Structures are given as structure tokens and as C-alpha cells.
């Protein structure tokens, strides 16, 4: 049986990848809001952290394999990997800025926070999950990379973006 992917144009495949990336965020939000409604924010956050510990590792391993990155691809490898993560593809605006042995990853507009705001819900307190997600992803791509939160709700220090992360290559 021929797969439908074989019949899609390159533009259609790009659109489909973006749809799937947004679908992952939607699924993440639906399960989170279910736990949040039934059990409260603290329990939802506990499960969110546990899920992201596992998912992040799986996502990073699959992307590293897909890109053919070696064991220590450094920040060049991280740039490539971050640029095709589902969150980079799903969020409306993301910047990746390189300066020597440091990389800044900025989510300028966050689909999760925008959705919660539009529903009249409080912002997701994502900093504790964000550090797990970003540090875990980077360390799977290259164990020499350290991650720092620059700004992430509720610890916002940069109001020009939804969140910001600094990755540094240590030798």
C-alpha cells in the first residue's frame, strides 16, 4: 500500500510537519489541563516535569540520529537540533543566536502561554519544566553543554520574549 506521504508535495509535507508540531503542544496542554482541573496545579506540574524528563530525552535522541550528529557535535549540532524540535516548529516566533561558545534560544511568542491567556487561564508556571526540557535536550545532543534559564515564567527577567535559555559549551 502506498503511503499518503509519497503523494504530498514538499510544501504540503512542511505544512504537515508544522501541524504535527502544534498537535504535540495541543496534546500536552489537554492532558495537563485535565490533571490541573482534577488535582490542582501542584500535581499537574509534578506530572509535567516527569513527562518532560522522558519525552525530552526521546526527542533529542531521535533528532540526533535523524541529523546524523556524532556524540559531541557541540553548539553547531545543538543549533541544528533546536531548529527542528517540535517547539521551534510549533511556536510562532523563535530565535537562535550564536556568540562564540554560547547559544541563546528565545521563544518570542509561546503557543502554550497564548492559549492559556486566550482562555482566561493563568500563565503556566513553566520555569521548572523548562529547565528540565532544555537542559535535558541539550545534554543528550552533547553532554558538554550546560543550560541556564535567562527568563521563563514566573521568573521573568526579559519581557521581550516568552522565555529565553542560554547554552554554553564546556570543554
Write the layout of secondary structure elements.
Elements: H1 10-39, H2 41-67, H3 74-83, H4 86-90, E1 93-99, E2 102-109, H5 111-118, H6 127-141, E3 145-152, E4 163-169
Antiparallel strand pairs: 1-2, 2-4, 3-4
Helix pairs in contact: 1-2, 2-6
CATH topology name: Muramoyl-pentapeptide Carboxypeptidase, domain 2
Distance between the termini: 50 Å
Largest sheet: 4 strands, antiparallel
CATH class: Alpha Beta
Please work out how many helical segments DSSP would assign: 6
- Alpha-carbon Rg, integer: 17 Å
* Net shape: globular
Strand order of the largest sheet: 1-2-4-3
Model regions low in confidence, pLDDT < 50 over at least 5 residues = none
Question: H/E series, N to C?
Answer: HHHHEEHHEE
Coarse structural class: alpha+beta
Question: Can you put this structure into words, describing what you see?
Answer:
- It is a single chain.
- The chain has 171 residues and is an alpha+beta fold.
- The protein has a single domain (4-169), classed as 2-Layer Sandwich (Muramoyl-pentapeptide Carboxypeptidase, domain 2).
- The chain is 56% helix and 18% strand.
- It contains six helices and four strands, in the order H-H-H-H-E-E-H-H-E-E.
- A four-stranded antiparallel sheet has the order 1-2-4-3.
- The relative contact order is 0.14.
Brief summary of the model shown:
This protein is an alpha+beta fold and 171 residues long.
Features:
about 20% strand, about 170 residues, single chain, alpha+beta, Muramoyl-pentapeptide Carboxypeptidase, domain 2
